[in-house]
Amino acid sequence: MEVLILSCGTGGGHNAAAEALREECERRGDRAVFMDPYALRSDRAARLVSGTYVSLVQKTPRLFGVAYTLGELVRRLPWRSPVYFVNRRAAQAMERFLAQHHFDAVLMPHLFPAEIMTCLKNRGVPLPKTIFVATDYTCIPFTEETDCDAYVIPHPDLLVEFERRGIPREKLYPLGIPVRRAFRQELSRTDARKALGLDPEETYLLVSGGSMGAGVLKRAVRELYRQFGVSAHLIVICGTNRRLYRSLAKKYGSSIILLQTTDKMALYLSACDLYLTKPGGLSTTEAAVVGLPLAALRPIPGCETKNAQFFTSHQFAVSLSQIRSGVDPDLWSGMARQQRENILPDSAERICDLAHRLVESGPTQATP
Predict the structure, then answer these.
(1) For residue 253, is it within any domain?
(2) With CB atoms 3.0 to 4.6 Å apart as the test, which of 32, 33, 103, 212 could cross-link to 22 if both were Cys?
(3) What pTM was estimated for this model as a whole?
(4) Statement: residue 207 has pLDDT above 60
(5) Is 365 domain-assigned?
(6) How would DSSP label each residue in 146-210?
(7) The CATH number of the domain where 12 resides is what?
């Protein structure tokens, strides 16, 4: 099967899900092409989209929250959103690309490519099978104005929300959020610590603000260092936020383990006793697949607020205030049990199986 995987750099989670899908496609012998659809217009356009988003989230997260709230209001109006019309400008380049390359299915762990493909479908362009993969535990604004063959959502409890937003029930598949196979390895904490050069007898708290180092990471580190500075080691991952990295390095020096980006995230999750992170859809899912106790830092307003609410209400995670009250072993074990029973570790395989079934069912009918 020939698969096109489309995602954008507006946060690392979308691309991480795309990488998990590509990994699974290639593992089973399918040919997979992963690309940013804006790169078809120019690399500058792709950088502009991702750079604008990252800058907004890192520097003015409250403004991002305002934009998300406006999106919730606009989605109530009886016409298409500005997001659709902006993405329509990229549709022509995508149409040329699809005319020159054959694909059986398009997997999209990002809303923007789904909008682009919807524009083409509305113009009557013949398309491969299209599958939107939600990477947050909510139906984000404007998902309902896309027209894909299938919508993969993270959990069955979200079926009602997506259906209420206008997605047909027969197109909804609660197959989870795809994570790479590295997060599914049954690696003991001792072996993971050995691989990372960490002391097998110490306590380690992993703190992250996602790929962008966003959120209230500096404040969280300060509070955690004050509470656990002697009894536990802090491992802080700053992502692409160089300003944050320099600030923490200046204040704490070698008293904390400070990283920028890492390709060993699965190892760190397996090695640590607790993970404190802003509640991105991918970061929380990766921790749940590993089975690591999880605490949600203050979310970036918007879909992360929904992720935090979903995880805490389902007892997949706890709030930071519960950590301040002390470590409760019963709470940890109950959280791990809930994660095992509710978070699908093999989502990537299930999505690829779905793609094969849809392709075998016959061609997509273009909208006149």
Answers:
(1) yes
(2) 32
(3) 0.88
(4) yes
(5) no
(6) ---SEEE-S-GGGHHHHHHTT--GGGEE-------GGGG----HHHHHHHHT--TTS-EEEEE-T
(7) 3.40.50.2000
